[in-house]
Amino acid sequence: MITYYTLKKTTINFLIHLFLLSVAITCLYPILWMVLASLKTQETIFSSLSLIPRQFHFENYLKAWQEGGFGRFFLNSVFYTLCVVIFIVFISSLAAYAFSRLKFFGRNFLFIIFLAAMMIPIPGSFVALYVLLNKIHLRNHPLGYILCMINVGLSMSIYLLKTFFDKIPQELEDAARIDGCSKIGLWWHLALPLAKPALAVVVIFNALNVWNEYILALIIFDSRKFMPLQVALKSFEGEFVTNYPLLMSGLTITAVPIIIIYLLMQKYMVKGITAGTILG
Amino acid sequence: MKIKDNLGNYVFVLPALVIFTIFYIIPFLWVFQLGMFDWDGISPAKIFVGLENFKEIFILDKSWWQAMRNAIYITLIALTFQNTLAFLLALACNRQMKLKDWYRTIFFIPPILSEIVVGLAWKFIINDVEGANLINRMLITFGFPQLVHRWLYEPKIALTTVAFIHSWKGFGFAFLIFLAGLKIIPKELYEAAYVDGANAWSVFRRITLPLMMPVIGLVAILTILGTMQAFVLIISLVGGEMAGHTSVPVLRILAAMRGSSRFGYACAEGITFGMILVALSFLQLKLLKRIRAA
């Protein structure tokens, strides 16, 4: 009887592992294919169907970086991501601190408005943003895009940080205040350092959001020189549809930094992504 | 002193409030205003048409409802195939086993990639070059040559292909929420059930499933909200609406704005679609309350 049960258990475990493993391979295989195809040549990319290229053509990356213009697009994406994240961290933590700790008229009302903005989907808001940026002459300008993206991440970040600030014990704050700390000082010296884990989530959540954003960048930028990676990739694919190795290099340049950051900061990343939907 | 103090506190929320007002509140109100106009987006003349745009959407615009049907079709595949897969994986991973963290890490890689990257990479994998299509090669190898298709170019199949690649990208996210839900179920419940002589199936049916119902509902609504609005993946996979075969509501809005320069109509479409989604969000809120109460 014992052997029957152990046999049954081993078989079940084996099948479960087989199931998990096959799904895991399905997840990784396309990404691996993309990376390895970026090292093949246009001639061999379809003719040799082996996963591993015979020769590794790393010069594809140099070509993509220089001739394909991906160096420029990469730096654009880095610039937008950094700007948006830095501004969001300051603006949202200031507001979240006020919503959590300071008293002012209309506090709850304002907070509920921010929350509602987070919950209400407006598909096609890009139409109105396009009109708005045209009016204030910020369309086809990096500043217009950055401001739009700050707004996109603002509500969520304020909400996340406010819930975190709410948990900081009042006694800590009272002690600091008695020592003569101003309100701004409390925010900077007390609340922000304590909120590091929440700030990490805010940073990751927004960085990913900006890095992967497509539609706003598409309608805001007409000039090639302003394009971030996502828009550049799609337009590159339209123009040079035959140059697959270069396109795969571009895709790899876009995807790999994200994957590396994910592997390093998994905990915060998972929290950041799920935070957007299950609210903390 | 008190009032002055009060005013000083506004400085903290001011930057957020200014950006939020200019880039959220004002565009939000504009959408409702523009929805009642006929406007090409450039000329100073806006023609007030009242509810004509909405009338057109509801009565005349067949392509809008085709787009809606397409979005519902993708959503149904995501709800059934993607979420069932995610739930089974979560159940499998919730057992005490080795490599659990590895699987979790790997399943969450597709969700962090952009739709452009996922779309273009998959487009390359199932490309149209004779003999180089991975899926077709596998089908031939396993003896199903009659199932070979041009997955992204045949009008009847393209939408289904999109739905499955969307599921590939999305299941890891559902998986993670399911796993978090399973962790909350108290272990004592299972132990007590097994002591009482219950078998695995009845434990699943009487304990796991009922307790997971709110989480399943939540994932369902998140899937609906996310999938109904998905469109970038379609742009990157098939390039656009493919004469309506792969069009979805947001692509219609984009086409009204960029293709036919009908900004008012685009806004009206946005409002119509937004209302439907808001109704679904309210359901989400209700479910969240039930989960928290449990």
**Uncertain regions spanning at least 5 consecutive residues of chain A:** none
At the fourth level of CATH, the homologous superfamily of the largest domain in chain A is: MetI-like
Number of helices of chain B: 13
End-to-end CA span of chain A: 48 Å
Q: Which bin fits the share of residues in helices of chain A?
A: over 70%
Question: How many structural domains of chain A?
Answer: 2
Q: Trace the largest sheet of chain B across and list its strands.
A: 1-2
Task: Output the CATH class name of the largest domain in chain A.
Answer: Mainly Alpha
> Could you describe the largest sheet of chain A, including whether it forms a barrel?
none
Structural class of chain B: mainly alpha
What Rg of chain B is obtained from the alpha carbons, in whole angstroms? 24 Å
Broad shape of chain B: globular
CATH architecture of chain B: Orthogonal Bundle
**Helix-and-strand structural type of chain A:** mainly alpha
C-alpha termini separation of chain B? 46 Å
Q: Approximately how much beta-strand content do the residues of chain A carry?
A: under 5%
CATH secondary-structure class of chain B: Mainly Alpha
Largest interface: A-B, 85 and 90 residues
